[in-house]
Amino acid sequence: MTDTLLVGIDGSEGGARAADFAAQRAKESQARLVVAYVIEWSPYSFNTPQENEVRHKRREEEISRAESDVVGPVLESLKNQGVEATGVVRHGHAADVLSHLAKEEKVNQVFIGRRGLTKMQALLFGSTAGTLVQISPVPVTVIP
Amino acid sequence: MKKLLAAFLTALLWAPASWAQDSTEMAISLDEQINQAISPVTDVIAGVIFYSVPVNDEIAIPVIVVWLVVAALFATIYFNFISVRAFGHAVELVKGDYSDPKDAGEVSHFQALATALSGTVGLGNIAGVAIAVSIGGPGATFWMILAGFLGMSLKFAECTLGVKYRNEYADGSVSGGPMYYLSKGLAEKGMGGLGKVLAVFFAICCIAGSLGGGNMFQANQSFQQFVNVTGGADSFMADKGWLFGLIVAALVGVVIIGGIQSIAKVTEKVVPFMAVIYCSAALIIIVMNIDQVPSAIGAIIGGAFNPEGVAGGAIGALIQGFRRAAFSNEAGIGSASIAHSAVRTKEPITEGLVALHEPFIDTVVICTMTALVIVITGTYTAGGGMSGVELTSLAFESAFSWFPYILAVAVILFAFSTMLSWSYYGAKCWTYLFGESRSMDLLFKLIFCIFVVIGASMNLGPVIDFSDSAIFAMSIANIIGLYILFPVVKQELTSYWSRLKSGEIKKYAASESGA
């Protein structure tokens, strides 16, 4: 059975480095690669009725934009490198969604970039990589 | 429809015309002129809606209050105390335990509830309770809590129907509320004609309600509190309600006409914190006076059945309690159904169950806290004819001298968010009547802004009369429809409940909720 690797990207350089790193590993081990992009969203936010009314439409727009602008180009370049890859776009909290995807796709290893936050920044804004390391069901590789 | 619009505009134009007549008397302030021009109209409307049947020499029972109470009681019994037996399940629904992770990014149960609550929790909870206690005595609190509890079942039914009969458009946006379930639901029952009439009547009343309770009352009481904290009668603003109204109207206009959603977003995020601050302060006062709580509860229960010095005795207290509860939690009024309809769910009943929490949080929790603070601090007897937000402010001030300032900020923010929600409800009904066009939408929003100024300028008396009448009038059409559609809700409930019990409807594992 071939291995499955999961990489989380966010459109940043760190995410791109993680995708490159994961692509190398996938090539070496003939593994399948899942490229995930998480749109930050919480079911517990406070919205105006106007926002709620058009929420469904906005969600579709957000997903199609993420697919075409962020995930699409990465998948394209992976295909050129000969790596078998699929893309996923989900709403939610990045670390939670990646950990959930790892289970759902029976992933062997997760790759993620980091933002290089200071202690203070991580305390204030939360670190996706830091949280994922704590909750992931499989080994996590954090790419600097 | 054109005729309707013409009638409405004539009414609107009539008001300024009569100001012009008054303006010859330069001696009186602009606020008084506005008051004098509008209050005869509101008096007539209030007289019709609050048509009362005299019981004895002292007291008359308003038919509309009985109408609401009977419906709430009927719903509670008909759905077999759904408010009690589904309370826990509703908490799980709000938490998202039953939400499909694939729907992440759609409107969640929590968001729909929070949005509806921001329209409901407002000055009704702060000022309305003070009105109830100052007129009906502490006993009014008991009836208010009871009305809140009964209202839960009514809210459950109307929000289920709101989702079930909403319109979903090709672009994925949704529109729901009583006007849709009245017209579509009754048509299913072969009463299409009646449904249409009720839907139109509801929409007209909802427009008035959005201008009254959702606007004038909010503007009026936030101005009152603003004057309170800036020096009372000596305040530079004391006689300038119209100016305060203009400023608020400009802010409201910027959001609803200018489409500056960022202001609305900030408000939506700050208001929950204000609610927490308000409730915490109330709790602290209650805990500080914990030794007086038993006697306060005694006064509330004793006053409910055998009040002293309340006009009309127990019935007088009951009417005040029920009236202010309905005004605050809007159960049976139909308004919240418009906000709840935006949720993403396959089962309309789930949103109904979530909506159970709305009267609970609004009335059983928040209103009760306000009432306890007023009763414990005893300000309702020492208030010297004070009512509304002034009385609540005085009660909090007796514990924390600086609290009126916080309250002023909270009141203005609550008022603002309630106005934004109600402008949405009103606009939905307006476009339902006159068609979805940008110019119609704009026209309503302009009228809405004008009413902010009118509301801030007038005295509390006529404002509350008009606000009450408009809000209660919404319940006439809504509740007729609810009686006809209750069996539909029951069918949905029975089917959902049996699937839930059999395990067909399962929780998604906590880790899979995706958030």
Automatic annotation (TrEMBL), chain A:
Signal peptide: none
Superkingdom, natural source: Bacteria
Residue ranges occupied by any UspA domain in the UniProt entry: 1-144
Matching InterPro entries: Rossmann-like_a/b/a_fold, Universal_stress_UspA, UspA
Stored Pfam families: Usp (PF00582)
CDD domains: USP-like
Sequence similarity: Belongs to the universal stress protein A family.
Protein's UniProt name: Universal stress protein
Species per Swiss-Prot/TrEMBL record: Pelagibius litoralis
From TrEMBL, chain B:
Signal sequence residues: 1-20
GO molecular function: amino acid:sodium symporter activity
Protein origin, superkingdom: Bacteria
Subcellular location field: Cell inner membrane; Cell membrane
UniProt topology in membrane: Multi-pass membrane protein
Alphabetical keyword list: Cell inner membrane, Cell membrane, Membrane, Signal, Symport, Transmembrane, Transmembrane helix, Transport
Primary location class: membrane
Transmembrane segments: 59-79, 112-134, 140-157, 197-217, 242-263, 270-290, 296-319, 360-382, 402-422, 442-464, 470-489
Keyword Transmembrane: yes
Recorded GO CC terms: plasma membrane
Keyword NAD attached: no
Family: Belongs to the alanine or glycine:cation symporter (AGCS) (TC 2.A.25) family.
Protein name: Alanine:cation symporter family protein
Taxonomic source organism: Pelagibius litoralis
Organism taxonomic ancestry: Bacteria, Pseudomonadati, Pseudomonadota, Alphaproteobacteria, Rhodospirillales
